[in-house]
Amino acid sequence: MKRINLAATAVESREQRLGTIIGWDGNADSLAEESGYARKCTGRKGKACELCEVRGPFTQGSVCSEQMVECQAGNVRDAVLIQHSPIGCAVSQTIYNSIYRNGLAMRNLPVENLKIVSTNLLEQDMVFGGIEKLKQTLDDVIERYNPKAIFIGTSCSTGIIGDDIDSVAAEYTEQHRLPVVPLHCEGFRSKHWSTGFDSTQHGILRDIVRKNPKKQEDLVNVINLWGSDVFTPMLKELNLRVNYVIDMATVEDLAQMSEAAATVGFCNTLSSYLAQGLEQNFGVPELKAPQPYGIAGTDAWLRGLAKLTHREEPAERYIKKEHARIKPLIAALKLKLKGKKGYVATGSAYSHGLIAVMRELGIEVNGSLVFHHDPIYDSEDPAQDSLAFLVDNYGDVENFSVSNRQQHQFYALLKRVNPDFILIRHNGLAPLASRLGIPAAPLGDEHIAVGYDGIVNLGNAILEILQRRKFHEDLSKHVKLPYTKWWLEQTDPYIVARNPQLIYQD
C-alpha cells in the first residue's frame, strides 16, 4: 500500500496514484476483470493495473478540480475559501451556494450563504504576480469574517504564474494563530475533477486534524456531501454518534476526525483519500466493506462497522428487524416497476451502488455511464472493489461506459439501450435525455438510495419520474437535436476518439 505523504503540500493526482481513466467502453465484467484488484493484480504494488483508455481528441465540457475544492472547502461553515484566481473561476459559486443552502436546510442547520471570495486576478497580475492581492484578500477575510480557518485554492492562472501560496499560508498561520491551508487544485493538474476532493482532504489532514487526539469510542466519521441525515438513525441502532465531514461541518468537526473510532462513507470516490489518510497517519481505521447500497451491501457495511466498534449483537438485531420491515415494501415496488428499464449516469462508485439498488427492485439495467473510473482505491482492499461487488452479486452490465460528461457521446449511449428513465447526479446531461423523451431524476439528495430505507426511497422516486414520461415524450416531438445527420446515424459513441482524423474531414 502506498503511504499518503502529508509532508508535501500538494496531493498526487488520481491518474498517478490510482490509475484513473476518463474514457472506456465495454461491459462491466470486462472492466472489473481488467482493473479489479479483487480479482487479479493482487501482487502489484503502487498504482493499479494499467487500463487501455479511450482518449478523445477534444473535451466538450466538464468541471475541474478547483470546483470540487469549492464544494468541499467552501462548505465548511466557520471557515472561508479564497479562490486565488480570475473572477471567471468563481462563477460556479452561484450553483454551489444554492446547493449549500439546501443542504443546511435538509440537516436542520442555520441556513446561510457560502463564504468564498476571489482575488480577481487581472492581466497585470498574470505578468507581475498576484501575491500582494492574495495578502490583501487574507487581511480582508480575517477582518470581515473572523474565520476559524482559511483555505487558499489555486487556479490554472496561479499555477501558470507560479505564485508561492505555501509561504503566504505559513506566514499568516504564524501571525494570526489560525490554520491557513494551501490547496493545490489547478484545473490542469488532473484530467478528472475528483482529484479536487483529494486536494481539500489533503490540506485538512495536514493542517486542521488534531495531532494529539483523545479517542471517542462511539464517534464515527461519515464522509459525505450535502445529503439528508440518513446515517444518524442507522448508527444510533449501534449506539454510535455521527461526525459528518466535510460539507457543512465546522472546523472543530474536522479537527476531531482523529478522535473517532472509525471512518465510513457513502461513496468510495469521495471518501478514499481522507479515510486512508486518517488511518495511516492518525490510527483511525477505515471501514473496508462494500458500500451501503442494496440489502447485500448494507448488511456487509453494518457488520463491518459493528466489528470495528465491537457492536456485533445490536447490529444483528437491527439487520434482522430491517429485513422484515422492508421485505413487503420492496415486493410492492417490484410489482409496480416490473418491466421497467433504467440507466445510471453518475460518478463511478456511486453508480455501482445505484445499479445494485435498482436490481434489488427488479428493474432492468443494461447500461450505465460513469464519469471516471478508479481501478483501485487508496486502501487497496478488495472489499472496497465496488464494481466487482456489483458484478459478482447482481450480474453484468452489458453497456458500461466511462466518459467525463461528454454531451456528444450521450446520445448514442442512450440509443443503445433506450431506457424508460435515467438517474443522474450532474444534471447537465439531463436536457439531452429529455429531448429523447426520457425523464431523469437529478438526485439532489445524494443519500436517497443509502441503506435499507434507500431501496424504498429510490423505488418511490423512480415511480414519481415515470409519471412524467408523457411530458418528455411530447417534448421530444417538438425539439431538434444540435447534431448533424451523420453524427446521429453513428452507433459508436467513441468513433471520434477511435478515429480522431474524422474531425478534420468535411
TrEMBL record:
Nitrogenase/oxidoreductase component domain ranges (all copies): 73-466
Enzyme Commission identifier(s): 1.18.6.1
Keywords on record: Oxidoreductase
MF terms in GO: nitrogenase activity
SUPFAM superfamilies tied to this protein: Helical backbone' metal receptor
Pfam families per UniProt: Oxidored_nitro (PF00148)
Protein name in UniProt: Nitrogenase molybdenum-iron protein, alpha and beta chain
Source organism: Ruminiclostridium cellobioparum subsp. termitidis CT1112
